[in-house]
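Async update (no meeting this week)

Hi team, since we skipped the sync, here's where things stand on the single-chain job. The sequence we agreed to prioritize is pasted below, unchanged from the tracker. I ran it this morning and attached the output directly underneath so nobody has to dig for it. Comments welcome in thread, and please keep replies under the output.
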Amino acid sequence: MGRYSAHIAGWSLLLSGWIISLIFALVGSRRLLRGKESVFTDATLLVIGVIGTLVLGYLCWRWRPDFTMGEPKTPRGNRMRLVLVVVVLVGVATAILGYRSDAASSDPYFLFSNSPLPVSFGLPIILIFAMVLPPLAVFSRRNVDDFGRCAHDFGLMIGMSVFMWAAPIWWLAWRIDYAPRPDAMILYVVTSAIAVGATLWKRSHG
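Output:
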């Protein structure tokens, strides 16, 4: 992986950690105000969230990469920067919706489990995925250069190939009691990570 691709991957991990820390901070503060569960547990969650939000937020700002591939003042570069802003806003919106959700009061880790979600949280997230992300993906693809588009296509091909290989194997193994019940989100996360890794590899190796 090239230096630029490693920078992008590392920054993406920092951004993910910042969003998770923000959720922890918001949930911890809400639980403290409502007197839910143990004060010590809620305070610990709040402290971890606040420290993580501040530290990771600073690191995200300090080490932010050039997402425009060296074209910060071109129209295409400005449009790609707009894509980044929208992605960050989607993450922040998810954190705020999670904070306002009743599920956050009973389970601070509700985003990472299979527990039921209230409609007030689940429906807006569905709408974001259904109505915001597809146009964003199309807009991003239309403004990326040919090299980036080829790398993206390569990553999608690898990710889909992994999914088409892993999904039936897991499903059949479950049916003969050799594996737990297939989990769509696990497959989604794994194939997405592989697709992103393949895209970054293609960008750095040509």
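Quick observations from my side:
The CA atoms of residues 32 and 42 lie 6 Å apart.
The helical segments are 3-34, 39-62, 75-100, 103-106, 119-143, 146-175, 184-205.
Reply here if anything looks off.
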